[in-house]
């Protein structure tokens, strides 16, 4: 508790900072708030920030920011359907951040003046907003640089804390690289890791999880929504299996962690109802800024972990370093909007997802949807187009920003390890595209994308000798190809 806080009300007269040229440039008339807070009606503009000076308005008042890509394709730019890689920032988030970049630049850990207090207030407000989105207490939230850091902190931190008694970790084969690589690192340090397989639709088997649990298991880390195929793991059932195992065996319960970078703000998550002990969150997947995220680390019963970063003891000593107040405020606002608009976002995204899938299926044959349609997040649609090379598809679809497999691995031509884990053949894995639909995607964009897919797949198949053979009724799986 800040010992000076009681004095704040008395001391904190409104900050009136001398306006610099830069600060003046950010002042806009009140009427522009309408566009900043109503992205649905905002106009499309390449230049997101218009600058006007109005001396009558006090800082900060908001900024005239256009919603990204609303209303169709922005001139000269590809249609953005790569929402799992990152989301465009919601203009309301920029509004929430700007005062902390300009006027309220204090260090949130400064205890002796109003600059510090107001930055601290912004950080604590964000902590509550993030906590509220996942049904947690504000004190359970630790701000980090993103989900990669949160995953590293929780996985390595829990493993190291318990290492004298427990050295076994369970995860799945389809986790994000930052989880797999954290586990791989731990296995070089004397830990044992079980990588659970997944079924053909990407779901883990609860029986296999049950069989893998051991008295020396300290951590089970299973992602909430997969970033390549959108499959939603049954978090509540997973935590129930872990709890039951500990009860039956009379051992302390392994910590249940979930990487929820693709789930938070998109589907309802309640850490208490789902029995989640620790969770990773990313700002830039929920229309917030890049470079910020959060780790949910339960305090009751307490999840114990060793920090990765040592220093000033900020964030309960789990993540030292000055909290990045502007982007943390952005994460908080992104969480607030996600909580308020989740159902509307979901309905909008589901309708567009159906439109895409139905549009493609009606006009293109031999398309396979990877993942589990019944247990999937609709904003992540992964399709394999048989007899077409995914890279050629991507090249031909230059007017659509897409990914084949995970953004982090698409630089390599290795087939996606996630699709391989589902049992997809190399050919089908190579012919897959991931369509990421989001809050600002429009019907017009989806219709244009369907049209382009039909054109491109048809053209590429016409050039494919394999496709010609399939058209002639030859079962190409039976062909024995000569080796050279
Ligand atoms: C499932 C999942 N976990 C973790 C990450 C890493 O998130 P960040 O970019 O915030 O470090 C990503 C990003 O692609 C992801 O999709």
From TrEMBL:
The record's GO CC annotations read: L-cysteine desulfurase complex; mitochondrion; nucleus
Main EC class of this protein? transferase
Q: Which reaction does it catalyse?
A: (sulfur carrier)-H + L-cysteine = (sulfur carrier)-SH + L-alanine
One MF term in GO for this entry?
A: metal ion binding
Q: What range(s) does the Aminotransferase class V domain occupy?
A: 79-448
Names of the cofactor(s): pyridoxal 5'-phosphate
Q: Which Pfam families match?
A: Aminotran_5
Per its UniProt entry, which superkingdom is the organism in? Eukaryota
Q: Which controlled-vocabulary keywords does the entry list?
A: Iron, Iron-sulfur, Metal-binding, Pyridoxal phosphate, Transferase
BP GO annotations: [2Fe-2S] cluster assembly; tRNA thio-modification; tRNA wobble uridine modification
EC id: 2.8.1.7
| Protein family membership | Belongs to the class-V pyridoxal-phosphate-dependent aminotransferase family. NifS/IscS subfamily.
Q: What does this protein do?
A: Catalyzes the removal of elemental sulfur from cysteine to produce alanine. It supplies the inorganic sulfur for iron-sulfur (Fe-S) clusters. Plays a role in both tRNA-processing and mitochondrial metabolism. Involved in the 2-thio-modification of both 5-carboxymethylaminomethyl-2-thiouridine in mitochondrial tRNAs and 5-methoxycarbonylmethyl-2-thiouridine (mcm5s2U) in cytoplasmic tRNAs.
Tell me the protein's name.
cysteine desulfurase
Q: Which organism is it from?
A: Apiotrichum porosum
Q: Which gene encodes it?
A: NFS1
